[in-house]
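Help wanted!
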Amino acid sequence: MKKIRFKHIIFIVILLPAIQACDLSYLDKDIEDFDTEASFAIAVGNITYTVGELFNEIDAKSVEIKENNEGIVSFVYLDTLASVTAVNAIEIPDQSFPSRDYNPGIDIPSPGSLINETLILDQIPPFTFSLSGSNGEEFNEIVFSDGNLQLTVQSTFTDVDIDLTLTFNSLRSKTDDTSHEVTISINGTTSEIIDVDLTDFWADLTDDGNGGSTTNTFVLTVSGSIDLEVGDTISPEQKLSFSLGMTNLQFEAIYGDLKNQTINSESLTIDFDVFDDFGTGALLFADPTLQLIVDNSFGFPLGIDFGNIAASNASETKFLMGAITDTPQIINSPTLAQEGQTVRDFITIENTNSNIVDLLALKPSQFTVDISATSNPNSGSNQNFSLNTSALSAYVEVNMPLDVVFENIEFEHELDNINGADFEDLGETTLNIHTINTIPLGGTLEMVFYNDNSIVHTITKLVVFAAAPVDTNGISTGATENTTSFDIKGDEIKTATRAVLKLKMNTTNASSNSPVKLLAANTLDISITTDVSIEINNN
Amino acid sequence: MQKKGTLLTYALIAFTMYNVTAQEHFSFYQLRDYVLQTQNISPTYMPQNTFTIAIPGSNFGVNYQNGFRLKDLLVENTNSGSLEIDLKNLLLNVDDINPLKFNFTGHLFHMGLRKGKNAFSLFLNTRTDVNAQLTKPFLNFLANGNSSQVGELIDLGHNKFSATVYREIGFGYVRTFLDNKFKVGFNLRFLGGIFHASTQHNAELTLLTKADTYDWEMTAQNATVNTAGLDLVINEDNYPNNALNSYVFRNKNKGAAFDFGAYYQLSKKFIIELSVTDIGSITWKDHVINYNIEDGSGTFTGLSLKDIDDVEQAFENELNTIFTTNETQSSFQTKLGVKSYLSASYLLNKKNRFSLTGFNNYTFNDFSPSFALAYNRTLKRTTFGVTSSFGGRQKSIGIGGNFAVSLGALQIYAATDNIVSKIENVYSVDFRFGINLNLGYKKWLKMAKSR
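Answered by r_m:
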């Protein structure tokens, strides 16, 4: 029995390790992090661009993209040129009039009057004062918003007391329309000063003081009495003098013939960024317009001179020329019945009256506008007005319908802040771009990836969408399909810090300089698929 | 006669070296009546002694099978000497369907009692069963993406997965008839599910990449992953401190299983045996989460690239328009993987036994039987032998071995379906080991001798 047990022990000692003799040394080796690469074929997505959306995508500047009446997509640039208010445009200068004297011609020598009596002064003729404007204006009425009238009455009578009633016939109360009246008493050789705050008054300047009609005339009527007491003496040369002045005149409204007011806007530089992303290449708009929109609430017409409008790019400047610049362009005004309203006028600069096509062909970055306007450009008398709220506002709308020739126009866009590490897991990748294009505009793409200034990967020029065919009017007649594939090497762009995208565009028949019409109905359908190799790892 | 047996042994060994094998506890199966724990895979095995009790914590079994070898997946870098996970190399070495199986059985308690023509057993086991079935197109998709399968339907639905951890308390009974020539036995097991995750049995998920547009045409049906108990582990922080422990030892995931077997000695030389095990199921009710993709089909034609800010979010939104996902807490039932053994033995003499055993695992309703040729030397209280298994979805060569020896009342047994193999070369690993305390041999040995 003991023998058997011993055999069994030997048996176990030998067999058990044999049964478990699985060599696990393979698992002693280090196991590297999981890292593999798999290639996926997947539809990335699709997008349909209208012409407007396409240009918004590549050139999202301050230009608006609209559709005109013909269905043509237009670049529309709108800017405010200037705004001139009445306060800046028209001023009434301070008025200072020659002194007027009244000498009653009374002679009461020494020993003087023998009795006490009152001498009535009721035959004094009205005094008139002529206002003068800066430009020969003929004012009918001025409704003051501010200002001061000062009347100084100087007496040379030595012994008597004089009571005077001064009636400012032209100065009417805003509340009851009555003429302003002041009563003063003068004792001896003194002067009395009367100040009137004009804020509550308006001036009727059409009465000549004798019942006739005129302009710019301010009338003052004086009456009164002299109290003569026993012993008072009066010499014939003794008199009363009236000095009138007006200062700081501001108006709520003025009426009359305002003659030729010159309204100058400051010289304006408009940063025209529409073409900032248009690189090299030729551009021709067949039918652009530059429309000046003028809102006028002054009560007088204006003539605007367009002789000083210029477009410029980095190397060249061109001035606006043509019929539009030969004569001032008339801006109408509201009539007296339309007081407080604004009249809008449009002045259109187009290829029939100017060289606007040439100006836009410069792909200008700036427009310089120096507009000068003169009131009442036509001869003859005028019934004008101006309120203190009157203003002249001008806007410019540059309308560039894409009836156009693009010849190698290149849009360049830089993608900065690229983190190449984002592409670290990207292996060999093929992008397939399939397009169906009804826009008569084709594009080739070039993309260069940089590590600072060193090129790390280049996607060479590829036709990404081909221009659609057109009829004789330059209108698309169908669709052009195009498929382009290109490779992206993830191991090259993983060091990229920035990329520059260049899209070169040509319209159909660009080489023959024939414009095409890019219609709002035209579309570019883009479908992108990819065979992308992705590194999959446990990070 | 002895020479004849030796020749057959050599022939068997030679045969195993040139055949493809599969390991399904074939070697352990050959220990038969010698080892009490074989009752778990063949209920007709009757202990050779009156009373047996397993030494607690010393009995366990591990079985791992794969459709590919470790070195197919972990490739040695000849420069660095380290191992790299190489899915592309794996793809070169897989079949159209590749099973992945792992099984662990821990016998916590096992007791057997033989009385007359009857034998009884009582056992408590913990078991872990992981079964997966990976298709070549799926592995190709993982390894290479879909670029190489443009225009082809990638059927992801035939990839199956099931992992279950459970405990079982069982009772076994065997009775002999016809002077021990005929035996029948059964086990009745009460199951307590602990953790589970599985794809739904009839799940379908397909992907077709259209050749011209690279559109992804996708369909999903019954695409559900059922889980139980896993959230307690994954999102442990969301639960009270003792929730996991409490759940593991007491939950509502109950089930039952039944095993049966039959043994018949046709003649002095020939024996046939049949066993069917793991007929049963677990109903999972506790801490259940079902991750569902609602039935549907759709085509991913790419993103609408207009006004797109967040590509990942856009992609997710787009997929959500094709498939809707949700989580539910519906109870579900899982069947154990039914297993069957059918064996024919030739008794050269009392000490030499040759067997041909067939095995099938029906986990995924799969019928791909594997077979084993076995030789065992059968002594009084000791047996040892070799096996060679082949067939099924396995394709490695392995030589198995087994033994059960007694040191007095103490019995030590071990079995494997792979004796000598480097781990990187095997398609499977199989090992059983245990120590039992066997009492009351003499009575039964005398009876056997008298027969």
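OP: Thanks! One thing I noticed: The radius of gyration of chain A is 45 Å.
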